């Protein structure tokens, strides 16, 4: 051990910024991931996996900037690299054991380089299916050769066996993932009648029993613009596990050939064709760009919502509208720039229950209405921020008082619930989360027949603040001021 005398400095690796956490806006994202990069690709199929960092996402699913083929990566990127919010739950449906999701690469000869390496130029290769032969002699992975994915998507093979390294060519075959083999049916999923195994969006049921968390936002960027997926997402927002609630963010396609809209004036019709009408949904158009990367708006808006909540004590009372999107522009699916002004965004999109983005000293989300507007004007169903507060409060009530179920239904139990809720509600009002919050036990809502059936009903009145969507100032010419300035207030 050295003898220390004097002054010394040591260095350590730079720490990454810890993501801010938001549970109220817990995103559950369905799609496809580059699982060919994993040692065990099958471990990340049709299973909800909770991730608190980009590294966890990468370890569990792989990562690629190819957002078209690997749609989950949009949310990974926007959540952790753009807004740095956590956690998110990801569900990959791309299955290496499903024949329609893979492609067999026939055996071919690959040239061995002078340094004993090979470049196997096939995309999305599943390394556990790689077969390398010297003539007809199979080589053993880990002993005779090492294989890894190169940055350009090809496979880099290092030959360790001397005889094989000296050969002119080696024979290589494999299986590759086939992302375009995934269909809307895979995303929607189902329940196997024989095994009971759940897949796709049906896995939302497993979130709470598996992870002990309640979903806040359901997403499927790259897929939600399909009517069948949009319908499935909307159907799952209510009655999760029979009791919980969430919202879903749904993209309206920017491709006119996909029943979408390439021009803002056609978005209302595209929304109607997509069938997005739920008070538990937000409809979004167009896409978001950061440099050359193009994201479906739902991935960006989900991350923005979580970030907004995190800056408001993780209580979803503030609207994500008019918040910085941290992007470089809005685009169509082919990269064509979209540039809306405030009037276009207001009169054609917001007025029809569509959230968009405008550039006002930087790109901002723009729109407070749920997809149910203008069909409904009920505040709890029209305003997205109010709807989310109602969902959050309902989920919290269920989680808080589940412990009271099956206890004696006496006055003490009832009073404990009422007192606890009102103490909590008074705190919300004091912090300006809402304008009012009051819970009561009413005799007219608890008839004897219900009490005999073990059914107790409490009634909560809550008033989350409505977004200040329009602020108007009235200007009027002050004649008296002019007279005073010119005459000093004296009569002529």
Automatic annotation (TrEMBL):
Top-rank lineage group of the source organism: Bacteria
Name this polypeptide is given: Phage tail sheath family protein
Organism field: Candidatus Faecalibacterium intestinigallinarum
């Amino acid at each position: 051990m050295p003898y220390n005398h004097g002054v010394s400095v040591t260095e350590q690796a730079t720490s990454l910024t810890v993501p801010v956490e938001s549970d109220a806006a817990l995103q559950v994202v369905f799609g496809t991931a580059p699982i060919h990069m994993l040692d065990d690709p099958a471990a990340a199929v049709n299973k909800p996996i909770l991730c608190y960092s980009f590294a966890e996402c990468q370890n569990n699913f792989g990562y690629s900037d190819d957002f078209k083929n690997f749609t989950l990566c949009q949310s990974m990127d926007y959540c952790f690299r753009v807004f740095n919010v956590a956690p998110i739950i990801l569900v990959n449906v791309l299955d290496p054991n499903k024949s329609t999701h893979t492609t067999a690469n026939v055996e071919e000869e690959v040239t061995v380089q002078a340094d004993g390496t090979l470049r196997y130029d096939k995309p999305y290769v599943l390394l556990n299916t790689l077969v390398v032969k010297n003539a007809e002699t199979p080589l053993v992975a880990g002993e005779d050769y090492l294989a890894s994915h190169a940055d350009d998507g090809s496979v880099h093979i290092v030959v360790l066996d001397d005889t094989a390294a000296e050969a002119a060519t080696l024979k290589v075959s494999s299986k590759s993932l086939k992302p375009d083999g995934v269909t809307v049916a895979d995303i929607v999923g189902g329940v196997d009648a024989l095994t009971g195994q759940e897949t796709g969006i049906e896995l939302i049921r497993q979130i709470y029993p598996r992870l002990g968390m309640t979903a806040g936002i359901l997403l499927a960027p790259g897929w939600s613009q399909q009517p069948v997926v949009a319908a499935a997402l909307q159907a799952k927002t209510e009655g999760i596990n029979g009791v919980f609630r969430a919202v879903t963010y749904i993209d309206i396609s920017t491709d006119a050939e996909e029943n979408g809209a390439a021009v803002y004036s056609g978005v209302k019709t595209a929304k109607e064709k997509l069938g997005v009408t739920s008070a538990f949904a937000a409809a979004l158009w167009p896409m978001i760009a950061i440099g050359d990367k193009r994201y479906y708006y739902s991935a960006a808006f989900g991350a923005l919502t979580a970030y907004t909540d995190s800056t408001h004590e993780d209580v979803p009372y503030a609207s994500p509208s008019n918040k910085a999107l941290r992007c470089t522009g809005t685009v169509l699916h082919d990269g064509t720039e979209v540039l809306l002004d405030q009037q276009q965004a207001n009169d054609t999109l917001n007025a029809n229950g569509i959230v968009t983005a405008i550039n006002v000293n930087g790109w901002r989300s723009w729109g407070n209405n749920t997809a149910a507007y203008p069909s409904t004007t009920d505040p709890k169903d029209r305003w997205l921020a109010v709807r989310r507060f109602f969902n959050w409060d309902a989920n919290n009530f269920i989680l808080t008082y589940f412990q009271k179920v099956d206890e004696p239904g006496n006055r003490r139990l009832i009073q404990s619930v009422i007192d606890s809720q009102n103490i909590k509600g008074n705190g919300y009002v004091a912090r300006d989360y809402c304008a009012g919050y009051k819970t009561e036990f009413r005799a007219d809502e608890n008839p004897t027949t219900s009490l005999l059936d073990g059914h107790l009903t409490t009634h909560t009145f809550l008033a989350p603040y409505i977004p200040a969507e329009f602020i108007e100032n009235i200007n009027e010419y002050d004649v008296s001021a002019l007279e005073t300035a010119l005459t000093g207030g004296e009569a002529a």
